[in-house]
Amino acid sequence: ATLWRLALMMSHRSFGVHDIFHAFNGRRNGLLNCAELAAGLIWLGLPVSEPDLHALVRGLDADDDGLLSLEEWANGFPDLPESEPATQEALAQLTLQPKPVRELYEGATAVRPRSKPVPPEALKKFKFKLQPQKSYGLVWSSKGEASRDELSVWAPEVEGSGVLQKKAKAKFCLGHYVVGGLDNPSKASRVTPMVLEVTDTSISMALSSSEYLSAVAEQLLPPPLRFRLVWHDDSTKTPIYVWRAVPPGPNFVALGMVATASDEAPPPEVMSCVPKRWCTRETDRPKCAWKDAGGAGRPASFWTAGSQLQLMLAVQGHDPPQEEQCWKLSEERWFLEPQKLMDLLEQVPESPSLRESSSSLRASSAADQSSILNSGGGPPPLPPLQPGNNARTSSSQSLSSSLANSSRASLSGCGGCGGCGG
Fold it and tell me: Which residues form a coiled coil (predicted)?
């Protein structure tokens, strides 16, 4: 019944199935959770109980992971258009505050283990810098396959998390690299791909270890919560599976993807996520590295995301990755600023001067948020319905009221990239 009511409302309001999915998915990660869907239903004027919400998600969730992909969402509305030009622009500006409901996906209620507290004075000594990556391990290649075009996927050879306590400097994998050929990325690309290096500059001795490197990495470069299969081809001699990372929370983003030669999801520790506030949208267009030529599996294409990191992105079909999948780091070199990381490093003890600075920052953020709400911030009104249908007019009035009461501005004053949506 809920799905039928939702489809009817979307039809009456001329909402495209893809447009409404992207509007509800405030985290912009392509995976709709229960909290986001609940906010969207309230905005539409279709509030439901938590059991009904969970029933709706389970009914659409083909792989039973508690999250809805765009494909799973669209499959629930086969008779509705993907996009509607009349409302697409207004929906693109919509920002909703997720509702506090119980999630269904694995690890949703898991509490991250506490890391070792890092004093602000120590945090200030940590330098983050993009460095050229020279050594790689082959994950998969088309060598020996009956493929018209060659393809290989490579993982950067970096330190494992188990050795961080013995080091003062370490590189971190943010995803795998794809090459339209069989050479490793450092030979195949005119511009050497980069990885993120973290250095504790308070350590001057070459072989000395950092007391806090491991704790900083755990909190600011955490592994993903899990991986979701994007595409696979098991018709080749060596199968290939491509996975998208699910970040551990809305404050983090996964910049790249990883591949395996088996259907078993990789362990989360194979890559790191980064704080979303450190990122901006990639302005360079993705470059296509390979397109399948209609093999036994579903059509797919592999891309390098921009010119900064050149990480692998894979999509079903031959269209480029969507804009919300393409991120880059805002800077190529920076030191940590503790006062801008207090929400990610809650256990860090503050000195009196830092506490005063942090309180001032939070007060400023609250004032900005209040200003936005009091000024009636939100998306522009959606196009009116055609006269002559009382039911539709009633729905329009309900929707306008819901919009005024439920829409919220996103992360005002977060100190980050802006426009991150969650």
Answer: none
